[in-house]
Amino acid sequence: MNKELKSLYSWLAIGGLVVLVATYFIVSLIQSRQDNLVFGSQTHLQKSEVAKDEGGAGFGPEVVKNSQPVGYEEVRDSYIGRRIQLDNCMLDPNTVTYKNGTKVMLDNRSSEPTEIKIDGKAIRFWGYEYKIVTLYNTTAPHTLDVDCEYLGEVQYNVARILLQP
């Protein structure tokens, strides 16, 4: 009877672990599909579709998604001066100033998943994943503090982003 009880506990532990891992991945997928993230009570981070300009003045709400896939190099080149690279929780640049409402490229150059928190709001990246976001705050100037979690280790204040009016 004791052997059967141990076997039952082992299966329950394995089942619980599977449920935890599945929940983590589902929550990650849901968060990566959100269109608007709110930082604190006033700061907004808006994820954008990677799109080509269809005759407008650049990336913005008027942009229509191009049916042709856009390569990493093309996106990277279009965000020169507006790209923040993440590599093992080291952000480059780690202190930067942007105009309020600027679209930036957050680019994970690590092969491992990484999570950053901008003013406490989490953004998760898979290995070598990038995201295009709009940094906006209703009261500029405003400083966004960036924390990072890599391989289960949290590092605080790894970067600061100053938003100017």
Name the features.
165 residues; alpha+beta; six-stranded mixed sheet; 2 helices; 11 strands
Overall pLDDT confidence: 77
Strand content: 35-45%
Described by strand count, sense and barrel closure, the largest sheet is:
6 strands, mixed
Share of residues in helices = 10-25%
Count, helices: 2
Q: What are the segments in which pLDDT stays under 50 over at least 5 consecutive residues?
A: 33-44, 48-67
Strand order of the largest sheet: 1-2-9-6-3-4
Radius of gyration: 19 Å
- Which geometry do the CA atoms define? elongated
What is the rounded distance between the termini? 71 Å
Order of helices and strands: HEEHEEEEEEEEE
The computed structural class is: alpha+beta
Description of the structure:
The chain has 165 residues and is an alpha+beta fold. Helix content is 23%, strand content 41%. It contains 2 helices and 11 strands. It has helices at residues 2-32, 72-78; strands at residues 36-39, 43-47, 83-87, 90-92, 95-99, 102-108, 114-118, 121-125, 130-137, 142-150, 153-164. The chain has a 6-stranded mixed sheet with strand order 1-2-9-6-3-4, with no helix packed on it. It is elongated.
